[in-house]
Specification:
121 residues, alpha+beta, two-stranded antiparallel ribbon, two-stranded antiparallel sheet, 3 helices, 4 strands
Amino acid sequence: MGLAHQRCSQAEALNADAYDQPEDEGFVIEALHPFQEMEIGAEVPHPGNSREFLTGNWRTAGRPVINKDKCVKCGICWVVCPDMAFNENEEGFFDWDERYCKGCGICAEQCPAGAIVMEAE
């Protein structure tokens, strides 16, 4: 067992008590990958899996509404979206995917044609 692995094991043992709280005290840990399950060095053993995490239910500031009459099909929304929630359709327009959009509004701010507005849900 290497020194790094020993140190990780020791750190996990020291921190284990912090995560063994009874549920009735309201202590809940939510994580996509708890640190205890991560590979040493935080290596991602299965790359390319980000599409499995549907994060659209985190949306806080509303949803983008696209006016296709104003849209010039430039694709800036697709480029600037940090969640990759836009996809080009067969007509050349970019539709947003509610499964991934968190409602940050960057697409609406950056749209040069003003074709996207954020609307409350």
